[in-house]
Amino acid sequence: MKLDCPLCGARDIREFHYQGAASLADRPDPDAPEAQQVFLDYVYMRDNPAGENRELWFHAHGCGAWLVATRNVTTHEFLSVRLAAAREAAP
Amino acid sequence: MSRLAQGGLIDRTRQLPFTFDGETLLGLAGDTLASALLANGRHLVGRSFKYHRPRGIMTAGSEEPNALVTITRGNHAIPNLRATTQELYRALDARSQNRFPSLDFDLLAVNDLLSPFFGAGFYYKTFMWPRSFWDRVYEPVIRRAAGLGELGTEPDDRLHDKGFAHCDLLVIGAGPAGLIAALAAGRAGLDVILADEDFLFGGRLNAERIHLDDQPGNEWAAGVVTELRQMDNVRLMGRTTVTGTYDGGIYGAVQRVADHLPAVPGNVPEQIFWRINARHSILATGAIEQPIIFPGNDRPGVMMAGAVRSYLNRFAVAAGRSVAIFSNNDTGHRTAADLQAAGVEVAAVIDTRPDAIPQGDYPLLSGAQVIGTRGRLRLREISVQTASGRRKLRADCLAVAGVWAPALHLSCHLGARPVWRDDINAFVPADGAVPGMRAAGAVAGHQTTRDTLKSGLAAARAVIAEHGRKAARIRLPHCSDGPTEGAPFWHVTKGKGRAWVDFQNDVTAKDIAQAHRENFRASEHLKRYTTLGMAPDQGKTANMAALALMAELQRRSIPEVGTTTFRPPYVPVSMAALGAHGAGKGFAPERLMPSDALARKHGAEFVELGLWQRPAWYPRPGETTWRESCDREACMVRETVGICDMTTLGKIDVQGRNAAEFLDRIYVNTMSKLAVGRTRYGVMLREDGFVMDDGTVARLGKRHFLLTSTTGAHDQVWRHLTFCAQVLWPDLDVQLCDVTEAWAQFAIAGPKARALLQRLTRADISNDAMPFMSWREVKLGKVFARLFRISYSGELGFELAVPAQYGPSLAEALEECARAKGGDWFGLEALNVLRLEKGFLTHAEIDGRVTLDDLGMARLMAGKDCIGKVMADRPALRAPDRMQLVGLKPAGASKLLLGGAHLFTPGDPVDREHDQGVITSQCFSPHLGHPIALALLRGGRGRIGQQILMHDHLRGVETLCEVCAPVFLDPEGGRMRG
User: Do B728 and A12 touch (CB under 8 A)?
Assistant: First the structure.
């Protein structure tokens, strides 16, 4: 498999570290009421879709960029990749 | 000799002597081992797996189930190689397998007489009782009898390699479809890899008498190959079998680089295992002729008709003096014509179709079947059932012309099921079975050369269009072969004796019927119960007939019975090729410290830590145990001075307007208040509230920090920091750089540490100018260095860092200065003693399950938010009976403390329910004169002064301990502040 790093181009998947669902990017407010419950969900709970999944990948053996990739987990096809640091384009 | 006087794609000027079972024979350049054996009249080449039946060469390709031999190369015997794909070379040394004492007379052939007992499920039913026999009796006996060739027991030191390739288009198979596809794609400018397992490209064009325009097929193929060789964008990979299809356009392939050479020259690997990345692929793997099942069909001399034509047309070898042909289709008649053209006698064509008509001048038995064979080690006679009765025919070779089944394996490796086509009685690959893959030629169900070429060209054109290129015009040649007609006839029900379905695993038609009777009816069950199609066969020659038999028994159609799962590899791949560079030092890279050469010169003993090679201790003359060296080194540090290479510590440079804010969010303690020039101990948590790592943070400037991470945890810490910077808080202005290998860093520890350093620098490093936990820049000659006043030993300590290229020379300078002060190097073992005496932590304690409070460091937690703070506050993580860090020292007669041993309240049973904790680290303290340990103990801080029992179940040791604070020496820290 290859992943198309926005900085490096298409690279072998073994250069990347898979971190998990992209929901990890949305760290909850630690001062919010019920913060502990919200953090429990944030740390431990994941959707398990049979299809498109938004994921965090780290180009560990490359440029060191964190990426948000959309992947179809049933076919392993990457549908889109962007830099995690780049603000998400408005819908 | 069975070699014909003329013809064939062999070099008659180059004779190659070789040996088979010790007998010297002659072959020719261009031969396979199988064709050379046949040229010498040898059909019998091996004994079968279970019944030790004499077996002969059956095919001319990688589907061969019988002709497996052991070839000796240098000191290595390589078993289970197919004689049909092994290229002949001078002095090739091959032996037959699975026979004792000889191929002609094999003692275990007694199994064949006992075969009524050895049917399907024999092992499952027989070796059940008594249970105590499983390991001691049954397994050793079965192990001795099972298997084919034997592996050598010497380490295999032959060179193998891994390869990585990328291309626009991978063409798998260089028959007519593959060749024309590669030609079209090559001319269109695509990056093309054309792989074929044979050493001669052309596929069946080399084996059949077919003309393309006015050229023989093999010459047309050679012409295309010549043009392809001249294209820079086309890579031809001969002797290369594509073995597996994987996600994302990745294909595994094994290239036999040197298996055809008598000796491997220089650095050339024997084999390369390739990982080929291909945007598109064209599957042009052709088809495999399927046996017809009849009694006695495994006798040496019974061969596939396509193989008989291969040996005849390509290798100029007549497979027999008088050849009979058993056919259910027109290719049997083509075989007869080819044999007659070469002057070989055709005993008869036995065609199962009642309406078959002769297509030449040979005896034809229409609507007839072969119902038996005779001959001890070689076919002598066949029995034929015709409409008018039975008759016997003398023949020393029987060519079986069956259905050609597409070699579609690679299209099914991702889980797709093939599609049945009634018109050709075969499965073909499903459309879209593998993303980016198209099937062309015989594997897609095309039968004539013209159709094959057409489909190869069409597949290439589609790929070219998807790459946005223009396909050049290619004129298809006129081909001399026409369509072939056939009937779906799979097995003979008349006659007596066993009829083999899977030759490799010795499965007969009777076994399949028995499996059906015993209700193993699903194709996957049948496969496992009978071992049909298992191992290297992978459904090459055994599947189709078995499915047909099952369909008959179940009164269903073949597609209703379905196929089994095809799995990689398509052909056996040696472990040596798969694991190339993975043995010995190739298993993991080694990271060497700047003082590595010096340490080796001193004869240090090394230990691997996070890939780093670290000196564990430096033995001196007279020291016979590691403890002697370790004790001396630890005492040296406490009494004079010691130096230690600390380069392995992770080092991360943090800069930016928000660098301080960033570190406040990372560490539990506050880093923004740290003054420039100062250093602070810090702990970071994971977001789930458990401790990730500890280390020091030095403030180099207002917006510039340098932090250290534990050697073994550095990758995790680095990933974590970049995650926080890029994913969580991209709005913070902070830049991270991993400078671990940019700096060489040495610890200088001991009462004379300052005196040592003053020999190297004139900078003021007095306690006033440079107090504990400060840092400053110093000049060593012309080199700027960073000097940190930190201590991991509890002594007056410094760490001195220079750009990595100066590391080796600094190591030498430090060594000279240390020795002048009565000091020297100390290793990791002594370092461990020193830190344990002070209760400093490593990842033996920070094991991913401890909280800040477990380690007794809750006071470090500042008021601000940081990663992990919310979750660390969960009630269960604050419970008073959690395992807490304590020290242990022996309190009874036994002084032995063991790492990993568990702790129990004295008087309690020593079982899991009463477990109170575990020893995380231990050592002998030369300063205290007894062993000490750090432990995680349930409610440990409240038990200080109490006794606890260490019980080591593994080593059978019990030691009564006293629980104490986890600092054994200088708890006030006066020594390191002085």
Answer: no
Does domain B291-402 sit in CATH 3.30.565.10? no
Question: Tokens 């059956």 identify what position?
Answer: B58
* Chain A residues within 8 Å of chain B (Cβ atoms): 1-2, 12-13, 17, 19, 24-25, 27, 30-31, 35-36, 39-40, 42-44, 56, 58, 60, 64-66, 75-77, 83-87
Helix axes B217-229 and B176-187, enclosed angle (nearest 10): 30
CATH fold of B878-977 reads: Elongation Factor Tu (Ef-tu); domain 3 (2.40.30)
Tokens matching residue B705? 């920090």
**Residues B185, B471: Cα–Cα separation, whole Å:** 7
- For testing the chain A interface, which of B726, B737, B864 should be mutated: the one with the most A CBs within 10 Å? B726
pTM of the entire predicted model: 0.86
CATH of range B595-647+742-826; options 3.30.1360.120, 3.40.50.300, 3.30.420.40, 3.40.50.1970: 3.30.1360.120
**B905-929 confidence digits (pLDDT tens):** 999 999 999 999 999 999 999 999 9
The whole-number average pLDDT for the span B336-355 is: 96
ipTM of the complex: 0.97
| Tokens matching residue B569 | 């590899």
Indicate if B878-977 has the same CATH topology as B11-125.
no
What is the phi/psi pair of residue B224, to 5°? Answer: -65, -45
Of B277, B719, B865, the CB nearest to A17: B719
The Cα B34–Cα B22 span in angstroms is: 16
DSSP state of A28: P
Considering CB atoms only, which of B164, B715, B723 is closest to A66? Answer: B723
Q: Using an 8 Å CB-CB cutoff, list chain A residues near B666.
A: none
Q: What structural domains and CATH numbers belong to chain A?
A: 2-83 (3.30.2270.10)
CATH topology of domain B649-740: Alpha-Beta Plaits (3.30.70)
Comparing alpha-carbon positions, the chain A residue that sits nearest to B689 is A43
